[in-house]
Structures are given as structure tokens and as C-alpha cells.
Amino acid sequence: MLYIWQDSLLAQPFDPGSGKLTGSPETIARQVVYDNDRWIGGFAASESGPLLYVGGNSFGASQLTWVDRAGKEQGRVGEAGDYFWPVISPDAQRAAVSDSSGRNLEVWVIDFTRGTKTRLTFDDAIKAFPTWSPDGLRIAYTVAQPAQPSAIYVKNASGIGEAEKLIEGPINSTLSTMDWSPDNRALIYAVNTGAKGNRLWVYWFNEKKSTKLLPEDFKEWNAKFSPDGKWLAYRSRESGQDEVYVVPFPKVDGKWQVSTAGGDYPRWNRNGQEIFYLAPNGMLMSVAINTTGGFKPGLPQPMFVTTLKSLAGTQYDVAPDGKFLLNRRLTGGTAEPITVVTNWTAELKK
After folding, report:
1. Contact 87/131 with Cβ under 8 angstroms?
2. I want to staple 77 with a disulfide (CB 3.0 to 4.6 A). Which of 60, 64, 99, 196 is the partner?
């Protein structure tokens, strides 16, 4: 069995009869590229032939980029990195993002004005889905590590102090932080238990307890509060395909479909009068919203085609001035050469 572990390509004996790894892993090569976006290692091997690998850091580099409503680039944020799930702070001066440039996914805070990038989390676990508190002083995020229940933690955005565990999921489940309500009462998150997919839950800070958002089981995901906290947009598969819906909050006594031909990854305009989402073809869509006397969505309108890094989570956000922060995947591959290792299995038997 060949696999990547902490930048290195390892080989370990495998027993097909029992389906178990045996013995100890041996290092074939160090500094082998790995695509964190697609979970692909930069190597290939044959039992009777050569082993090939590409040296380097990562295939999955991306660039945080500002664009206007027409998709025209307005500037770039810092250097390229292995970024995921960027989210702009309430004061629009910073962004929280997960970055796997150091192999593990860690949460970082990027200051737009100063151009600095400060690491918020440390250790070997995976930290993902950062979410700002409404006052911008704290960040909630998901922590996952092998053989441990995933959990949601909160830490000061300054990095000072220890992280506080809010929620721990059941065994064999994955938690994903979604959004923090503007009134500081609730945190929306998703629980994935495998076959049933994601279900949305609400953590209530005052009561320190969680409740399901919806009674249905339609694989809900990517929930975002409206700026006034009275509405919640999310993705659901209740129609058989991904679509964007909106429900009132906290009392869910209605539901409206916002997208019309498939949609996911909703975001609200900071004025509360518009919802953005991604169509299946990567087009960013806009829907005018009227909440006077209820909820009335308009017809979806196309804006521009995005080139986002991944669809593993929301890879864009919207600033108060209407500009979009996109996590754009960089193309062009790697300039590193392919290394060929001959007779690699014989080396392992020594």
C-alpha cells in the first residue's frame, strides 16, 4: 500500500486476505506533491515496473482574489496558498481561511490592510470551516482527527488564549461549522453520519444545547444567516437535485425555493436584499429578495462564471461594498520533474 503522509511517500505491507496493513511503513521519497483539493498524491507505481513521483509541495494552490459584480479582477490578497473556505470578518478588514500549505489544514487570519497572515490554530488535527462571531472577536471552526469524534471549537480571533470546545459529534460523524447568528444566540452547523448525508443543527449559546433545524432528511448543507438574522438560506436535495432554499429563523414556519435549475453555496448581500449562489455550471447567480410582509424571491439572474478552487465548501464571500472575495484555483500544474525509481519493491525487501 502506497500513501502520502506528512509530505512523504510511504510503502507498507498489506494483506488482501484480512484487509489489514502489516509491518512498518518505509519511506520511498520525501517532499512528494499532494493535491489537498482532490485528495490525489503525485505518484504512480507498478508491481513489476517503475515507480514515478513528482517532488514539491502541492497541486492545489489557489489565490484569494477580489472581483466586481461583472467578475473583473480588482486585486489579490497576499500570496498564493492552499486555501479553503474564506470568510470575511464583520468589519470587512480581515478574512479567516483554512490553509493546508503546511500539510495540515489550519485556520489563519489575513489582514487586508496590513497584508499579514496570522496562524490561529496549532497541532496535528484538521481545522476547517472557520466562522466569525458577529462582533468579530472570535472564530468558530471544526476540528477533526483520526479515531476521534469531530468537534467545533471557538477561539479568540487575536489568537490569545486557549480554544473552547462547544460541540462534540457522535462517533463516526463529521461536524461542519456553517454560520453564527447576528444576534449571537445561535451557531448553525451540519452533522454528517455517512449514508444519510448532512443534517443542519442549531447550537444555542445560552442554553448550551443543540436542536435540529428541520424535521426532514434532505441532506441540508451550506447554511447562511441573513444580515438581520431573521432568515436562513441553505442547500437541500429535497427535489432530487441541489437547490437553494430559505426558511424563517428561529421559528421555521415556512420555506421558499430560491434557485430554479440547481444551486448551492448561498451567500447574502450585506444589505439583505439579494442572495447569491453557484449554479451547477459554475455561474454565480443573483436573486433579488423582498422581505416586506414575508419572503419574496425574484428570478435568478446570471452574473459571471467563477473559477473557484473546489466545491467542498463555500469558496467565496461578499464584502459590504458588494465586491466578491473568490478563492480561485491556480492552473498550470507543477514545474517539478517526474522522478523514476526502478526496482522499488526489491529495495523494500532488504
Report:
1. yes
2. 64
- Parts of the chain belonging to CATH 2.120.10.30: 62-329
Phi-psi region of 72 (alpha: psi -120 to 50; beta: other; left: phi over 0): beta
Task: Give yes or no for a contact between 94 and 331, defined as CB atoms under 8 angstroms apart.
Answer: no
Model-level pTM?
A: 0.81
The grid cell for 54 is 513528482
Query: Which whole-number Å values give the CA distances from 204 to 106, 170, 233, 254, in the listed order?
Result: 26, 18, 18, 21
pLDDT of residue 349: 62
Cell of 274: 439579494
* Matching residue, cell 522522478: 339
Q: What is the β-pairing status of strands 62-67 and 73-81?
A: antiparallel
pLDDT digits (tens, 9 = 90+) for 309-327: 766 678 999 999 999 999 9
**38, burial (CB in 10 Å: exposed 0-12, middle 13-18, buried 19+):** exposed
46-71 tens-digit pLDDT: 877 789 988 865 556 789 999 999 99
Alpha-carbon distance of 74 to 337, in angstroms, equals 34
Contact residues for 316 (Cβ-Cβ < 8 A; gap 6+): 86, 265, 267, 284, 306, 308, 324, 325, 326, 327
CA gap 184, 168 in Å, rounded = 20
- Superfamily the domain 62-329 falls into: TolB, C-terminal domain (2.120.10.30)
Q: Per the structure block, which three cell numbers stand in for 35?
A: 493535491
